[in-house]
Amino acid sequence: MRSYWMQMGESSAVLELRDVPVPQPASKQLLVRMRAASLNRGEFLSGHGTFGKPGTWKAIGGEGAGEVASVGNDVHGFRPGDRVMGRCAGAFAEYALMESAEAMTIPPGLSWEEACAIPLTYLVAFDMLVVQGRLQPDEWLLVNGVSSGVGVASLQLAKTLGARVIGTSGSADKLAALLPLGLDVAICTRRPDFAGPVLAATAQRGADLVVNAVGGSLFAECLRALAFEGRLATVGFVDGAGHADIDLAALHSKRLTIFGVSNKMRTKEQRAAAVPRFVAEVLPHFSAGRMRPQIDRVLDFSRLADAKAAMESGAHVGKIVLRIED
Predict the structure, then answer these.
(1) Rounded distance, CA 278 to CA 313, Å?
(2) In the chain, where does DSSP find H-type helix?
(3) C-alpha span between 160 and 211 (Å, rounded)
(4) pLDDT in tens, the chain (326 residues)
(5) The pairing of beta strand 295-300 with beta strand 319-323
(6) Would you list the DSSP string of 269-312?
(7) DSSP for residue 93
(8) How many CA atoms lie within 13 A of 211 on its CB side?
(9) Which residues make up the CATH 3.90.180.10 domain(s) of the chain?
(10) Could you tell me which of 267, 138, 244, 259 has the C-alpha nearest to residue 210?
């Protein structure tokens, strides 16, 4: 089968399309004939720790959708032919293994391309907004880098929860494209200068929850933009700034909560723990048409290099997807 591998260097990556054997499912695993897989910016960034030492080769792709080809022992609820989506290692391939505890039945009406954009991105948003962020109706959410895959998912999920959303982006066109999805306040900036506009939009209250999808360069400004008892979620550092100063006086006086969102150190059991609740609370919104993944573009499997370049250019709004045909 065809499978993409990548070698991460100190500052760049090399892609290679290999012909490798079809993997066999172990206990509690599904073998999935992949039909589509989506890109996530973090897997292509040096310094995010997903590849180990520089020079290491690794099968890439983190989420996808397809048909169950076969199942391992102790698999319940899935059988060959089922349409599934989920987080899985090596998703940029014709076949990939998926843990049955992380696999989800694709809601009716969604294409392969739409389904593959849900598992990782929306589960991350669910973790930030619901599991850890405790976002409530009428609260204010601030999303930095709102046009990213995680940013758009956070916007959509927040609106279904009845929250109000402020988004930042360096592109006025991207912000305009997100207004139909319910973006309440658009702030066009890439700089740490948004706390003032956030306070003005919220009658000087500040944001109840902030999603920092950019990194350390915005961390201090995020603290300034938070309301009393506000919560700050940090997901990745695409700006390359992995360190930031903390205003302890603000942390103390405003009773702030700071938490990180990452799958790197989590066990399979920990990653799977939120899936049943996600299926019960979020997938019905997709089934009913209240949410739909924002797909920026779909490229053929042979064009992963082009898809990677498009992501690195930062011109996309939502997800970039690979279509994997026979």
Answers:
(1) 32
(2) 112-115, 119-126, 149-160, 172-178, 195-201, 219-225, 248-253, 268-273, 275-281, 283-287, 304-313
(3) 17
(4) 999 999 877 667 889 999 999 999 999 999 999 999 999 987 876 554 455 566 788 999 999 999 999 999 999 999 999 999 999 999 999 999 999 999 999 999 999 999 999 999 999 999 999 999 999 999 999 999 999 999 999 999 999 999 999 999 999 999 999 999 999 999 999 999 999 999 999 999 999 999 999 989 999 999 999 999 999 999 988 888 888 889 999 999 999 999 999 877 888 889 999 999 999 999 999 999 999 999 999 999 999 999 999 988 888 999 999 999 87
(5) parallel
(6) HHHHHTHHHHHHHTHHHHHTTS----EEEEEEGGGHHHHHHHHH
(7) B
(8) 37
(9) 2-118+264-323, 122-260
(10) 259
- Spell out a b/e string for 34-67, using b for 16 or more CB atoms within 10 Å of the CB, else e: bbbbbbbbbbbbeebebbeeeeeeebbbbbbbbb
- Please list, in sequence order, all residues whose beta carbon lies within 8 angstroms of the beta carbon of residue 232, skipping any fewer than 6 positions away: 209, 210, 212, 222, 223, 226, 256, 257, 258, 259
In whole angstroms, what is the distance from residue 93 CA to residue 173 CA?
A: 34
Lookup result for tokens 């199942």: 71
CA dihedral (85, 87, 92, 98) in degrees, to 10, reads -80
Q: What is the largest CA-CA distance in the chain?
A: 60
The CATH class of 2-118+264-323 is alpha beta
Q: Cα separation of 64 and 111, whole Å?
A: 12
Which residue, chain included where needed, has tokens 């979020």? Answer: 282
Distance CA 227, CA 103 (A): 37
CATH topology of domain 122-260: Quinone Oxidoreductase; Chain A, domain 1 (3.90.180)
- Backbone φ and ψ of 100, nearest 5°: -60, -30
Distance CA 201, CA 303 (A): 42
Half-sphere exposure of residue 101, counting CA atoms within 13 Å on the CB side? Answer: 12
